[in-house]
Write a structure and sequence with these properties.
Elements: E1 27-32, H1 36-51, E2 55-56, E3 65-70, H2 75-88, E4 99-104, H3 105-109, H4 114-117, E5 121-125, H5 133-141, E6 146-148, E7 170-174, E8 176-177, H6 188-192, E9 196-197, H7 200-212, E10 217-221, E11 229-230, E12 233-234, H8 235-243, E13 250-254, H9 263-271, E14 278-280, H10 288-293, H11 300-313, E15 318-325, H12 332-345, E16 349-354, H13 362-366, H14 373-398, E17 402-410, E18 416-420, E19 426-430, E20 439-443, E21 446-447, E22 451-453
The chain binds S-adenosyl-L-homocysteine and FE3-S4 cluster (F3S).
Length: 455
């Protein structure tokens, strides 16, 4: 799943508050790291805290409770969280009763080590503990050191009302939790537990609530979102049902697992106009030897054939991917295979990573992390350089095209209107081009490094 790109909230339609925040209520500052799934979980946490008598604040200096929703996917992600946590500790100086807690994947991954590493953390709550997060926070505020990291193979957070701090136009709907694939490098099955689907009625309820609040796009989330199944409803059927919701104009999903891309899902993508022509399809490596040792379940050729089938069915499909260099035993030849697969597929964009050992995976236990750091670094530079070429070419190919751009708000610098094309390319329009939630026709006139211009 792609790392989260935070969009600033602007004048977008706001979800109505369920209750008016009481200014005397204890204040929580919640910061999110990691993937879209974590952003969606933070919305769940906020919703539960709101109902439990807490109010949200945007400034940690005003907080009685600081929560960090963490990511454990790579060593670097964990390092960033530790850095940030110790930075936030300074607020204790003004408020000795300040509670600092961590939630999410690091809480699960490092449950036994948190006390030694960061004794000032008094709340540790895993991804299946959010239903009772307000009570856990109450206990931590009462002076207890609270650890709740039980994984629950049933918990899908039915009937809750997430409270998202997003743009109010594009909203996440979690349709699946956990992961059963056990790719040999990955910590997710250990931190998020077994795969389970959210009931279709619950997915629809959530998407309808978003539509009622003025959202125009839903992004269906799961670690292997297209392996979704609930009783006799599969992912293709779910997509079709979500597409019937009035008010929702666009549907995206992330991340699909290459092996689980059924012809039925491809057909829905081809025939259902609300489903955007965009897929994030993690390749990881172009070497069959690596793919096998990662236990990804597909070969390089099968992946390339799937890309062919998708592109044939969905014209103008935008394709992004995840690539990981320096996995255990990766040779120069394996690396060359990744570069050649990239040239063959020509992804529109990619998230690129150096492998890091997570301590508890199959690779940690049975394989040797033997690619030297400097070689990992050089290989990462190779893939980034090649991808930049492809990304620029992909942007340039959009120039002159007319797209339906969904307005999300104002650009970070505040001098443009920020919108999103069906392909997920960001589009910058003149200020005043429309209101958040409007769909406007835009002719692409140029590009910046990261966005399309329609000025
Ligand atoms: N469910 C997604 C992946 C989620 S993790 C899927 O479809 O496969 C997001 C990305 O992080 C992965 O695709 C992988 O490229 C990267 N990643 C996972 N574990 C990693 C590790 N130990 N070291 C480096 N990168 C890793
Ligand atoms: Fe991780 Fe593989 Fe699942 S990358 S999230 S174990 S599909």
């Amino acid at each position: 799943m792609a790392d989260l790109v935070q969009l600033r909230r602007s004048g977008a339609p706001q979800p109505p508050e369920t209750t008016q925040a009481d200014p005397s209520a204890p204040a929580v500052y919640l910061e999110t790291f990691g993937c879209q799934m974590n952003a969606a979980d933070s919305a769940l946490i906020s919703g539960q805290l709101g109902r439990g008598g807490y109010r949200a604040v945007q400034d940690p200096a005003e907080a009685d409770v600081i929560l960090i929703n963490t990511c454990a996917i790579r060593e670097k992600a964990e390092d960033r969280v530790w850095g940030r946590t110790s930075q936030l500790l300074k607020h204790r100086a003004d408020n000795p009763d300040l509670v600092i807690g961590i939630t999410g994947c690091m809480a699960e991954h490092l449950k036994d080590k948190v006390a030694a590493r960061a004794p000032y953390i008094s709340l540790v709550a895993g991804p299946d503990s959010y239903r009772s997060i307000a009570e856990l926070v109450d206990r931590a505020r009462g002076g207890e050191s609270v650890v709740d990291v039980k994984l629950d193979k049933e918990e899908v957070y039915d009937e809750l009302d997430p409270h998202a701090d997003d743009d109010g136009v594009s909203g996440f709907v979690t349709i699946q939790r956990g992961c059963d694939k056990f790719c040999t490098f990955c910590v997710v099955p250990y931190t998020r537990g077994r795969e389970r689907g959210v009931a279709p009625r619950e997915v629809l309820r959530h998407a309808r609530v978003l539509a009622e609040r003025g959202y125009k796009e839903v992004v269906l989330l799961g670690q292997t979102v297209n392996s979704y199944v609930y009783e006799d409803v599969d992912f293709a059927a779910l997509l079709k049902t979500v597409a019937q919701i009035d008010g929702i104009e666009r549907i995206r999903f992330t991340s699909p697992y290459p092996v689980d891309f059924s012809p039925r899902v491809i057909e829905v993508m081809a025939t259902e106009p609300k489903v955007c022509p965009q897929v994030h399809l993690p390749l990881q490596s172009g070497s069959d030897v690596m793919l096998q040792s990662m236990r990804r379940g597909y070969s390089r050729q099968q992946f390339i054939d799937l890309v062919g089938a998708l592109r044939e069915a969905v014209p103008h499909l935008a394709l992004s991917t995840d690539l990981m260099v320096g996995f255990c035993g990766e040779t120069d030849e394996d690396h060359a295979q990744t570069l050649s697969a990239m040239r063959e597929v020509r992804f529109d964009s990619a998230f690129m990573f150096k492998y890091s050992d997570r301590g508890i995976t199959y690779a940690s236990r049975k394989l040797v992390d033997d690619v030297p750091p400097e070689v990992k670094g050089a290989r990462l530079r190779d893939v980034i350089e090649l991808q930049e070429e492809h990304t620029h070419a992909s942007h340039n190919a959009q120039v002159g095209k007319t797209v339906d751009a969904l307005i999300l708000g104002t650009s970070k610098r505040g001098d443009k209107t920020l919108a999103c094309a069906p392909t997920y390319h960001k589009v910058l329009l003149p200020l005043g081009a429309g209101e958040p939630g409007d769909l406007v026709r835009a002719t692409i006139s140029g590009t910046t490094g990261h966005s399309l211009l329609a000025l």
